[in-house]
Amino acid sequence: MEAVAKRDLRAASPDEIKAFLVEVGEKPFRAKQVQEWLWKKAATSIDEMTNISRSTRERLAEAYEIRPVATHQKQVSEDGTVKFSFRTYDGHFVEGVLIPTDTRMTACISSQVGCSLTCAFCATGRLKMLRNLGADEIFDQVVIIAREAQERYGIALSNIVYMGMGEPLLNYRNVLDSVAYITSPHGLGMSPQRITVSTAGIAKMIRKLADDKVKFNLALSLHAADDEKRSRIMPINDTNSLDALAGALQHFYNETGTRPTLEYVALRGVNDTQADADKLYAFWKRVPSKINVIEYNPIEGGEFEKSQSEVIDAFCKRLSDRGVIVNVRRSRGKDIDAACGQLANRS
After folding, report:
1. Residue 347 has what pLDDT?
2. Which of 108, 115, 316, 340 is catalytic?
3. pLDDT for 109-144, tens place per residue?
4. Which of 52, 56, 72, 116 has its CA 20 to 30 Å from the CA of residue 248?
5. Closest listed residue to residue 202, CA positions, set 266, 259, 247
6. Number of alpha carbons in the 13 Å side-chain half-sphere of residue 127
7. pLDDT of residue 4
């Protein structure tokens, strides 16, 4: 006789869990305890739920299972950056990174297995898009990286960026649900203002974020401020032009009061000239925003090189001299598979 497939407990609604517990003779309040184990204590097995009777745990385990993400591989850089390859319950691999600095502990997490967007500078773009991650799988990455920050550095995780593998806005519902679990007082209790969701630029979904009045921060991976150049390195620009993105970002600011960040990876001889800085300034004037200029982590066999430090400094000076808030994000984890997608490609 073929075994009946178990349900994913973390995909079950609170009402479903309550109905099941009542059916097996438990009090309704036990459902709240189960939810606490799942999202506040981040249990990875039903047997961990020790304030629930063994018989009830056994009944739960007959019908449900928890499908945690597990660490498959870990690399530690000389600069303290920790790169994770995570394995999903069905054998796929995604990445996460712990980035320690003087002022913060940041987790960079993935939202999809692979990616469909084929950005030319990104190793993830070489992976097939296999599936979206569930909200619980995104949540698990944060839990694992937060524990690493505490155990390795004795410092709590301070920030989360959805800037790893995948396009978060193509996994909209699961990303927003994961943010809810991370920020809820019944979950990890982090402030949404310490979370940034980064998108390659899907104008209609940016507008949806605005209409949903999200509380977290938004970053746009811009990387070029003219359509021809941006389309060459980011094909998504063919259907989401700079005009469309500027309008969507303005709408986001109007509805949420939060200034988006423009992320700009400096690619040597491609987008790092003074003329490129002038075009970026012109785009910035259309959108209340701040700019992060990012040092590129080259990928194996890739066509791009990172810009020279003095070129990046001159690029940023041209912007800051005009009143732009611009920060430089120096490359981290240079001695490990630091570029997004590299470690998962190896896995």
Report:
1. 47
2. 340
3. 999 999 999 898 888 777 889 999 999 999 999 999
4. 116
5. 247
6. 25
7. 65
* Alpha carbons 343 and 307: distance in angstroms, whole number: 23
Which fold would CATH assign to domain 7-65? DNA polymerase; domain 1 (1.10.150)
- List the single range of 13-22, 154-163, 196-205, 333-342 with lowest mean pLDDT: 333-342
340 confidence band (pLDDT: 50, 70, 90): low
Q: How confident is the model at residue 42 (pLDDT cuts 50, 70, 90)?
A: very high
234, 239, 202, 230: which is closest to 218 by C-alpha? 202
Task: Name the active-site residue from 23, 48, 95, 108.
Answer: 95
| Cα–Cα distance for residue pair 116/60, rounded to 1 Å | 37
Domain residue limits, the chain = 7-65, 73-346
Identify which has the larger pLDDT, 233 or 341: 233
- Two tokens at 92? 């796929």
Close Cβ partners of 234 (under 8 Å, ≥ 6 residues apart) = 117, 119, 120, 200, 201, 221, 223, 224
What gap in Å lies between CA 219 and CA 215, rounded to an integer? 13
In degrees and rounded to multiples of 5, residue 223 shows phi and psi of 70, -10
What's at 244, amino acid-wise? A
pTM beyond cutoff 0.90: yes
pLDDT in tens, 24-36: 999 999 999 999 9
Annotate 47-61 with b (16+ C-beta within 10 A) or e (fewer).
Answer: eebeebeeebbebbb
- Angstrom distance (rounded) from CA 26 to CA 145: 35
**Is residue 250's pLDDT more than 60?**
yes
User: Is there a catalytic annotation at residue 300?
Assistant: no
- What amino acid occupies position 344? A
Tell me if domain 7-65 and domain 73-346 are identical in fold.
no
E strands, the chain, are 7-8, 64-65, 70-76, 82-87, 93-100, 105-108, 112-113, 131-132, 159-162, 195-199, 217-221, 261-266, 290-295, 326-329
In sequence order, the 6+-apart residues with CB closer than 8 A to the CB of 4 are none
φ and ψ at residue 260, rounded to 5 degrees:
-70, 165
Our answer to whether residue 122 is catalytic in this structure is no
Q: Which CATH class is domain 73-346?
A: alpha beta
